[in-house]
Write a structure and sequence with these properties.
The chain is an alpha/beta fold. It is about 45% helix and about 10% strand.
Length: about 350
């Protein structure tokens, strides 16, 4: 018999900075589930064409020299856009009960819902949502830490968003728009039966991931008794970063790959021999990263801006979101900013 390529029976569609990387890794551990090794293939978001979004490097190329890899990811330039490439992700799915992949772009990119419905009308859809105020600030902190956000003030970065949209910056820099969940999820509820959509909240996942994973396993039709190793949080914000003492020397030595490896806790890859590697490492220093609490005025502003969307969202998904509708106490507001 000819080999038949399996396609996903489920998709994790979002949302970004809501714990989806850990969720993806926990799904992979289940013996009855096959999840593509590649996270964020973004196939249904950009099917048939390579994304051409802009970013800060297009306006200030010298300032962002050395961040090519991260910029390509942020601008979706490494997405899989061909059917053949997408099918290869699932070539080893074998007889797995559930087969899936995770691309948080599917929630935000409008065309994705139609493409998914046309190709996979019976697919199960998973969405993991985080308070959009905290999600926005978490993404901003990540990009500041990684050198991808040129504006140091969160409020000013929010004010710049509409101009960035006009200039066709990648949606990864849309801190506010990515948190308007109602319209994003409404597209899926309009096309798929409600029973095929499972919406989960980060507020439940963070304190008790085991319970959320059991509920997810039941939804996917696999054994609920399996408990994944939940000891590691994947893609959580780093508490320290490696930065070069001399950026000119760092560029001369071709050091970005070394920094990527060290930040990930891996042994640095050889650039051009052992001597060069040692020079790169000696030029680096470790800086501890602290997460300043969000300014309370900005938190109140964003909470008000998201309020109408959240009221409509909780009716759509039939979940109580009252805890997101009011700014939390000062202690609660300062916590949890380092989540995935």
């Amino acid at each position: 018999m000819p080999h038949v390529t399996r396609l996903p029976s489920f998709l994790l569609i979002g949302a970004a900075k809501s714990g989806t990387t850990s969720f993806h890794e926990y799904l992979k551990q289940h013996p009855e589930i096959f999840v593509s090794r590649r996270k964020e293939p973004n196939y249904f978001a950009f099917q048939g064409r390579s994304p051409d979004f802009r970013g800060p490097d297009d306006e200030h190329p010298r300032r962002f020299r050395g961040l090519e890899k991260r910029l390509r990811v942020a601008k979706y330039q490494e997405s899989i856009v061909t059917a053949e490439g997408y099918q290869r992700l699932f070539a080893r799915a074998g007889s797995a009960t559930a087969v899936g992949e995770s691309s948080v772009s599917y929630m935000f990119i409008p065309e994705a819902a139609d493409r998914i419905h046309e190709a996979l009308p019976q697919v199960a859809l998973l969405a993991l949502l985080r308070n959009p105020v905290d999600r926005a600030y978490s993404k901003f902190l990540q990009f500041r830490r990684e050198g991808l956000e040129p504006i140091a003030d969160f409020s000013a970065a929010l004010d710049a968003e509409e101009e960035r949209v006009r200039r066709r910056w990648s949606p990864t820099w849309y801190y506010r728009r990515r948190g308007l969940y109602f319209e994003q999820l409404e597209r899926y509820y309009a096309r798929f039966d409600r029973e095929r959509i499972l919406v989960l909240l980060y507020d439940d996942f963070a304190p008790d991931p085991a319970a959320v994973m059991r509920r997810t396993f039941a939804f996917l039709g696999v054994s609920e008794s399996f408990t994944p190793d939940l000891s590691r949080r994947h893609n959580a914000s780093e508490r320290s970063v490696w930065i070069p003492r001399s950026r000119s020397l760092h560029r001369l030595l071709g050091g970005p790959a070394e920094v990527e490896a060290m930040s990930a806790g891996k042994r640095p890859r050889s650039v051009s021999g052992e001597l060069r590697r040692r020079l790169v490492r000696s030029n680096l220093r470790r800086v501890h990263w602290t997460h300043p609490p969000m300014d309370e005025a900005v938190r109140h502003r964003l909470t008000g801006e998201f309020r109408e969307d959240l009221l409509r969202l909780q009716d759509l998904i039939r979940l109580d979101l009252s805890r997101w509708l009011e700014p939390p106490s000062e202690g609660a507001a300062a916590s949890g900013q380092s989540a995935e």
